[in-house]
Amino acid sequence: MEVVEEVADGDALLELVEPDNHDFVKEIFLNDDSGDEFLGFDEDDLENDEQIAPFEDTWIRGNLDTRALPFDKEKSLNFDVGDNPEMVDFLRLILDDVFFDTLVEETNRSATDFFATPDSQNLKPHSRFKQWEDVNRDDMSRFIGMIIAMRSNFQELYYPGENIAIDEGMVAWRGNLSFRVYMPDKPNKFGVKLFMLCDSSNGYCSRLEIYYATDQNPSPKGKIYDLVMRLMQPYLNKGHKLYVDNYYTSPILFHDLRKLGTGACGTLRSNRKGVPDDIKNVKLKKGESVAMTNGILQILKWKDKRDVHVCSSIHAAEFVNTGRNDRVTGQVIQKPEAIMDYNKYMGAVDRCDQMITYPAFKRRTLKWWKKVFFHLLMLATLNAYLLYVEFCRKKNRKPVLHRVFRREVVKSLISATAPPLPVARGAANARDMERLTGRHFISKIVQKEGLKSKPLRTCPVCNVPTGKRKTAGDGRKVVRSSYECKDCDVGLCLSLLSFVPYGPYEVGNVILSFEGVTDIMLHLASSKNPLHQQVAVEAIVHSASKKDKCTGLLAKAVPLLQQLIKEADDQVKVRALVGLCKLGSAGGSDASDKQLAEGSTMTLAKVCRKFLVNPSKDIEIRRWATEGLAYLTLDADIKEELVNDTPALKSLIEVTTASDKNVLYPAATVFVNVTNSYDVKDVEPELVELAKFAKQHVPEKHDLDKPEYIKARVHKVAEAGVCSALVALCNTDSKASRELISRVYLAIATEEDLRGLIVQQGAAKALLKLAIENNTEKGLIKASHALAKLSITMNPQTTFPGQRMYELVRPLLSILHLECTALENFEALLALTNLSSISESVRKRILAEKGFSKIEHYMFEEHELLKRASTECMCNLVMSDEVVKLFEGENDRVKLLVLYCGDEDDPLLVRAAAGSLAVLSHSEIVCKKILEVRPHMEMLQCLLVNENVEIQHRGCYIMANLINSNKEIAEKLLEGQMLEILMALSIVDEPERQRAKELCVQSLKKAEEYGIIKPNK
Predict the structure, then answer these.
(1) Distance between CA atoms of 944 and 915, rounded to whole angstroms?
(2) What is the β-pairing status of strands 289-293 and 60-61?
(3) Phi and psi of 517, rounded to 5°?
(4) Would you say the C-alpha torsion 119, 122, 124, 127 has a positive or negative sign?
């Protein structure tokens, strides 16, 4: 695809232009010296002073007499695909056979060139390059289909509508490149810049150029001028209206476009050459404007929050209603018509970029041109979809969604010519757990008569990890077993037994209950072969899944396990140790249920810590030691010993950073047990008495599990660095492990003085990920609750900078649920209160996530704290115009706030409700609603005479807004004692009540203006 197209027929172009403009067109489009190909420009290279001079003396104050600019063409589709085309046909209009043939030819040429180099002789034996075959068009079609799934003809296929826009697009690229640009306003701030011309109605990209930043010979009117003219060349003298931003806008450009039958509108930089000084130097107040015209162009300067300059050849300096009311004055907001149209039609390129971003894929490459190629492929797919949408509208059909269109195109490209995949047959893989789910009946291989050697068979599971059979000559050990499965007629190594309990425990228990399996395990454990001992002990340990199922087996195995701890090597010893730890922890956290003799569990814990702190031990041994502690730390005595053993605690944190993922879950379990962050059921005292009466066992809580001991342990664990260690573990895919990490973080965040440490060690970002994705239902709640605690006492802007602050909204709203505890609801509301006070964009995010209804629900709660917290949050939300409109509707929301203002038991609730009404009372509709509440006079009087300075100030503010709303409301309010209260407050001398005094004086002056009261003579 050429970056720039040349003007094919100069005479044909001249026929479209009035005779007076022939010289001008020849200079721009038909002059060989001007350069047909655009290779880039600098921002500072603008118009030539000589070209601007005629403009400087022609501007006068006044309004442009806009002449009609007829649009003599309609938005049209310039192709024929029949009545019922497939979706892929629209893509093939753009990526035609010539495109695919070129890709095929260049791909094969590149491969041929590579095989001619010396590097091709040094390929690895299994390199896929050795199986290279020339690709064809069908192969390339499937390749393009896969690229689209991973996420020039543009101009010829579609003619845009009347309104078009030119702006910059961006292809993300952060590598070294001479023409890489930095654009801070784009989502991808570094990359290759594209200049794009798009239809404002749908975002279809008709023309584009790539910015190369190389020198060239521009025309005297500047490179920006040349760029716009080249992009607009096919659409001149058609009556189009072009919208550009201040990067492109200049008076000379718009003047010449108007001569060529094309209107233009855009924001303008005040320092552009040709802008009159009267526009530059005039000082305006908000809402004021000044306009100047030269008969062809209109330049308008309008003051909103800042000065806005607009240049247009199609708009007069007229103002139109926006349909919105000013919150303070209540008047309809008006804006210049040019700015309204600019905002409406300028976003075409941004819309195109946005739609390309949705299906975009992350593809790493060291070649910038590959990035551009993939970007253009996505642009081609988007344009094909827009062609499909326009086609459906023309045929009065409903188009499918963009993602559905892409999926169907991918299916068509891949499946149309895809050959059947070859079926590779190989031996079973030992690491494939499905290989072990079949039902095997293991038995001893029978000794055959006449043979003296021990009967052994090769285990096909253990010996085929790569799909190829091991042999004794390849230097690798062949594993043979004296056991077999007669039904399958294969030898089976008894390591299979250690895998059985890893699956669903019900299945494992059934398999282990088969006749002879338990005897085999115990027999192997007493063997002198270390491998047999290791496999058997693992099977015994993992069989302990449920208390009622495992106690019997472990009880038989205890003497054997105790013997192995004394005599066996470390690999067997540590596994036997875990078996005893499991038996010792069968009672859980119940202090009265001890499975082993007094002091035995303490001894086991010391041995586990000994293995753990020894860095010379294999990571597998330390993992098993961690698993043993995971069981033993249910005992509060062992928790205290562990947190007071600093080397063991640091070793536990250190072992979590190992590459072995199997250590994560037991290590996280230890931290959960130590911090008591597991779920504890609340037992009703009546049920305890009933159990004692029935002589049933009642679990007892250990003295060392009281709150003060738990708090001390949490501090020790946090200060040892567990927060930063768990940050690295949050990348695990295990939902169960992520839940445990969430529980530990919540336990630490519960301590207010440790929250700064959590943020300091980078756990805030990790918590956000835990609260959003890939976690159990309980884990999501725990992580969200921890985020709420952090947001209550710390500034969310520093704790969650940038986009993370907006991502925080959804987790907090997720725990505003009836199934969550009241504490979780309450702290989520407090966190949302802090968030909603930051900015309007955060409030809009809360509303977009449907947070208003959830927060409002808790305003009706009987729980005092929940009711107060939700009202405080609403006090911040009402600063949003969208929320004000909700209160203005036909509902009783305003009535509820008025009634809360009379609550004598909760001054904080009154303060929040009064604050909400103070903001809402800027609306005249809300003011009328306040007066519709029957006890409104009593409520207002209570606010005005309240001892609390803040409540009194808010009451005076509400009163001032009510009186300022209209005369009728003021007359109703100033009847009776209300006038006396205002007069009394207007003369108070207390310094802390001066703000209330000023508001009362303001209210009395307004009443005087209405003629309701008169000053004393």
Answers:
(1) 13
(2) antiparallel
(3) -65, -45
(4) positive
CA 509 to chain CA centroid, Å, is: 43
Greater pLDDT, 148 or 245: 245
Mean pLDDT, range 546-563, rounded to an integer: 63
How far apart, in whole angstroms, are the C-alpha atoms of residue 890 and residue 874? 18
In terms of Cα–Cα distance, which of 749, 844, 759, 765 is closest to 802? 765
In whole angstroms, give the CA distance from residue 869 to residue 865: 6
Virtual torsion, Cα 27, 29, 32, 35, nearest 10 deg:
110
- The amino acid occupying position 240 is H
Q: Are 645 and 597 in contact (CB under 8 A)?
A: no
Q: Is 873 exposed, middle or buried (0-12, 13-18, 19+ CB in 10 A)?
A: buried
CA 398 to each of CA 79, 344, 387, 394, 552: distance values in angstroms, whole numbers, following the listed order: 20, 25, 13, 10, 67
How far is the C-alpha of 800 from the C-alpha of 835, rounded, in Å? 11
Instruction: Give me the chain's average pLDDT, please.
Output: 76
**DSSP assignment of 796-826:** HHHHS-TTHHHHTHHHHHHT-STTS-HHHHH
Q: Does position 978 have pLDDT exceeding 80, yes or no?
A: yes
Q: How confident is the model at residue 304 (pLDDT cuts 50, 70, 90)?
A: confident
- Whether the Cβ atoms of residue 154 and residue 205 lie closer than 8 Å to each other: yes
Residue that the structure tokens 């006890």 belong to = 935
363 residue type, one letter? R
CA distance 275 to 136: 59
The values of phi and psi at residue 191, to 5°, are 165, -165
- What does the DSSP 8-state code read for residue 976? T
Distance CA 290, CA 279 (A): 7
Phi, psi (rounded to 5 degrees) for 627: -65, -35
702 vs 975, residue with greater confidence: 975
Q: Tens digits of per-residue pLDDT, 732-765?
A: 888 888 888 888 888 888 888 888 888 888 888 8
Between the CA of residue 399 and those of 93, 390, 410, 419, what are the distances in Å?
18, 9, 17, 31
Q: How confident is the model at residue 472 (pLDDT cuts 50, 70, 90)?
A: very low
Q: What is the DSSP string of 826-887?
A: HHHHHHHHHHHTT-HHHHHHHHHTTHHHHHHHGGG-SSHHHHHHHHHHHHHHTTSHHHHHHH
Residue 68's pLDDT band, with cuts at 50, 70 and 90, is low
Rg from Cα positions in the chain = 39
Rounded distance between C-alpha atoms, residue 104 and residue 100, angstroms: 6
Whole-angstrom distance, CA of residue 242 vs CA of residue 228: 10
What are the structural domains of the chain? 38-50+86-115+133-245+354-420 (no CATH), 260-345 (no CATH), 427-493 (no CATH), 734-877 (1.25.10.10), 895-1010 (1.25.10.10)
Q: Which residues of 614-639 are buried (b: 16+ CB within 10 A; e: fewer)?
A: eeebeebbbbbbbbbbbbbbbbbbbb
Place of tokens 């009194």: 952
Under the banding of pLDDT at 50, 70 and 90, the label for residue 70 is confident
The pTM of the whole model exceeds 0.90 = no
Q: What is the distance between the alpha carbons of residues 919 and 405, in angstroms, rounded to a whole number?
A: 47
Q: Which residues of 674-696 are buried (b: 16+ CB within 10 A; e: fewer)?
A: bbbbeeeeeeeeeeeeeeeeeee
Average of per-residue pLDDT across 348-363: 74
pLDDT at 640: 83
Q: Tell me how far apart the alpha carbons of residues 972 and 984 are, in angstroms, rounded to a whole number.
A: 19
Helix axes 402-415, 87-94, angle to 10 degrees: 80
Please answer whether residues 167 and 346 qualify as being in contact, where contact means their C-beta atoms are separated by less than 8 angstroms: yes
